[in-house]
Every structure is written in C-alpha cells, then in structure tokens.
Amino acid sequence: MKIIRRSRLERLIDILRVIASMGLIKQTHIMYKANLTWDELKKDLQWLMDLGLVERTVVSEGILYKITNLGLDALSHFEKIESILKLNHVKELYGEKGLVIYENDG
What we know:
Layout: H1 8-22, E1 25-26, H2 27-33, H3 38-50, E2 54-59, E3 62-67, H4 69-94
Antiparallel strand pairs: 1-3, 2-3
Helix pairs in contact: 1-3, 1-4
C-alpha cells in the first residue's frame, strides 16, 4: 500500500479550513480534525500566526484559535485556484467541453 503524504501547503490549508469551519477551537481539536501530529500542528500553527492568518485568544475555557480576515482571504484564494486546477484537469482529460454525459432516449 502506497502512503500519500500531504505537502506543507496542504496541511496549512487543512488547518485554515478546520479553524474557519469551527470558529473558536482548541489546539487539540485542530490536530484531530486536520489529522496532524502534535509537532506538525505546533510548527504549522505558529507559522500561520506569524503570517497573521490565525489568532490565539485566551478565554475562560483556555487558549482558543480563530481565523483572521486575512486567513479567510487566503483560504478563499486557495480554493479558487484549487477549483481552476481541477477544472483544467477535467479539460485535459475530456476536452474543452468537459465530461459530457448523453442520456439514452430509448
């Protein structure tokens, strides 16, 4: 069985997606939902905070993380690029019209 590893960019985007979908979230919950090791999460989360894409908030429940407006913008841009690349892949496989399914009238 071949193991396919995610790139760092894919891990970062997964972290942003998890935080965006959950609002305020604990570090361990991010780790489980993004399927990361503790070391990967600590390094990647710190990098996202250094870039201003994620913020740490201290509340009575503990330390929580939330995505910033810049993080939402970055995630939106990435998803647009991802969509375009998938569309181009379909065009490469099936031609300019994409995958066309004809219904049988009979």
